[in-house]
Amino acid sequence: MSHRHPVLIFLLLVLPSLQLLRGQDDSGESDPRVQQLYLQAKAAQSKGDIAAAIAGYREILRIAPRLGPAYNNLGALYFRQRDYKAAADVLEQGLKLNPGMPSASALLGISLYESGEYLKARPRLEAAVKANPADENAQLFLVKDLSKLSEYQTASSQLQQLASRQPKNQEVWYLLAKTYMKLSEQALAKMNSIDPDSVLSHELSAEVMESMNNYDGAVVELKKAVEMNPQRSGTHFKLGEAYRGLDQWDAALDQFQAELALNPANCQAQWKIGATQLQNNSSAEQALAGINKALSLCPGMTEARVDRARALIKLNRNKEAVADLEEAVKTQPAEASNHFLLAKTYRSLGRMQEAQTEMQIFSNLEESVRTATAERAREVIKNKESPR
Fold first, then answer.
1. Reduced to 3 states, what is the DSSP secondary structure of residue 97?
2. I need a surface site. Which of 49, 104, 167, 362 has the fewest CB within 10 A?
3. Residue 59 vs residues 6, 30, 35: alpha-carbon distances, Å
4. Which pLDDT score, from 0 to 100, does residue 42 have?
5. Does domain 8-149 have CATH number 1.25.40.10?
6. Using CA atoms, how far apart are residues 241 and 247, in angstroms rounded to an integer?
7. How far is Cα 139 from Cα 127, in angstroms, rounded to an integer?
8. Per-residue confidence band for 7, with pLDDT thresholds at 50, 70 and 90
9. pLDDT digits over 283-331, tens only?
């Protein structure tokens, strides 16, 4: 399988535009031999005979060593052959003669990047992007170069610009995600260098573990944080969430209640108390009272509305539950479980047509998830089976 370099399209745009300049009396361009060699090199290039084209440009430069665009063309041909060192050497000579060639600066920066000369590549790529902000290929390589230099903050700024202009470019979002991950790692390392045994260090370690579904590890870290500062707002809540991840409802309830004792106006803690009471089969009336109080404080919590609907359904107040579920599917139309619960509630009320509609939406959303999962699995298998 042949491998096309990611800047091949860029080269196809650059090469035809790099014509020899007119009117440079001291460049040697008017020499008939140069004109003949140029036509021969151009013909060889069009036939795919890159070696012959390179030989032609080298001869041109022997005769006319001050002909700047010839360096550009020759450098681009070396680049096409992936001889990045030769490309960089030639392009640098051309830019000394004619610094006003942003395409040559971009190609030089990319050549240096491909050669592992990241420090040298940066100013060339920055100059190219400054001279031609529309050159998104040069900007993308600048991002990659900055990442190699661990300049993630600057890289993220460049990527945000690219993402605003190319919102459908998956590579840009992939690089932005990686950059944010690196910034996060740097921040964590800095935190640990200040005090690896602080409350914040334990909380952040717990959040990392939770992101990997390691709730046992998160509980250990958060218990340390609570022991160090039991009066700190927010830590009990996080520990309660970790216990919920382990289905340890009573322990979770204790932590949410401890959080609420520190801050009685905490609507999130108030809601989680009610939601946890639903999970551990406490009184549905008691759970409903807590969730109602949370929603009176923060009426915009959609997930709390769903939990209130669950409490109402347990109390056989299905008609009242419908209003919350209808609001939930309106606010979060892509959440399949809300459509399923609304369909069940409609059915219990004899509203069969509406129940059927919601169940169809639920099925469509579930099918979309299954299709996407299957597609990713096929891609993984395909990549494993593809020859290296």
1. helix
2. 167
3. 29, 15, 11
4. 86
5. yes
6. 10
7. 10
8. very low
9. 899 999 999 999 999 998 999 999 999 999 999 999 999 999 999 999 9
CB-based contact 103:69 (threshold 8 Å): no
Amino acid at 109: G
Nearest to 238 by CA among 312, 229, 124: 229
Residue 230 Cα distances to 7, 209, 234, 260, 380, angstroms? 56, 21, 10, 13, 46
Report in angstroms the alpha-carbon separations of 200 from 180, 197, 261. 20, 8, 21
Q: Do the beta carbons of residue 87 and residue 111 sit within 8 Å?
A: yes
Alpha-carbon distance of 135 to 122, in angstroms, equals: 15
3-state secondary structure of 110: helix
Q: Whole-angstrom Cα distance, residue 138 to residue 128?
A: 7
Distance CA 58, CA 54 (A): 6
**Which of 102, 120, 104, 100 minimizes the C-alpha distance to 112?**
120
**pTM for this predicted structure:** 0.65
Which sequence spans correspond to the domains of the chain?
8-149
**Residues counted in the chain:** 388
State the DSSP string of 246-314.
Answer: TT-HHHHHHHHHHHHHH-TT-HHHHHHHHHHHHHTT--HHHHHHHHHHHHHH-TT-HHHHHHHHHHHHH
Per-residue tokens: 281: 């089969």
